[in-house]
């Protein structure tokens, strides 16, 4: 089943999203195998499959946000690995997805990321926080409508916070200020200058 978009609701800059229901885990695995390197991003939760091709605006925000995070990590000399849209899945939890961006902190050999980043550019879709809970990802940051929401997994429940558990000194106000700049090069120059102070 594909939800239709009411007349007049087309947004040219929106992400392209298809949501299907009643998709078995086996069918999800077959779709992953069939798509190969052609990459609509996937999210799966208990029979609901979302395929999403991000828009340019979505990808710009994701790239800009990732650059700010990476410059911050570099300035603190924190060992990390950026593992992008790494396909994370857990068959017993019937959940899987590809984050917009994710990071392993301190030990690159960990089996899953410490931090995932999601850009919400087009509303609707699957409950990604529930997928991340089932995957046991410790922290997720959502950029939505020019704000950043921080969720920390505590005792298998999400806690919305104003600071990060894995990067407690991260300045979200500064990150949002940087995301207002017009290009990636402008962001990199500005964040380096600010972090060097």
Overview of the structural elements:
With 197 residues, this protein is an alpha+beta fold. It has a single domain, classed as Alpha-Beta Complex (tt1808, chain A). Helix content is 30%, strand content 28%. It has 5 helices and 11 strands. Helix 2 (56-75) crosses helix 4 and helix 2 packs parallel to helix 5 (184-195).
According to CATH, what is the class? Alpha Beta
Radius of gyration: 17 Å
Mean pLDDT: 87
Per DSSP, the total helix count is 5
Largest sheet: 6 strands, mixed
Give me the strand/helix succession: EHEEHEEEEEHEEEHH
What key phrases describe this protein's structure?
globular; tt1808, chain A; 11 strands; 197 residues; disordered N terminus
Brief sketch in words of this structure:
The chain is α+β, with helices and mostly antiparallel strands. The protein contains five helices and eleven strands; from the N terminus they run βαββαβββββαβββαα. It has a single domain, classed as tt1808, chain A, CATH 3.90.1570.
Structural topology:
Blueprint: E1 16-20, H1 25-35, E2 41-45, E3 48-53, H2 56-75, E4 80-82, E5 88-90, E6 95-97, E7 101-105, E8 115-120, H3 128-135, E9 139-144, E10 147-154, E11 157-161, H4 172-179, H5 184-195
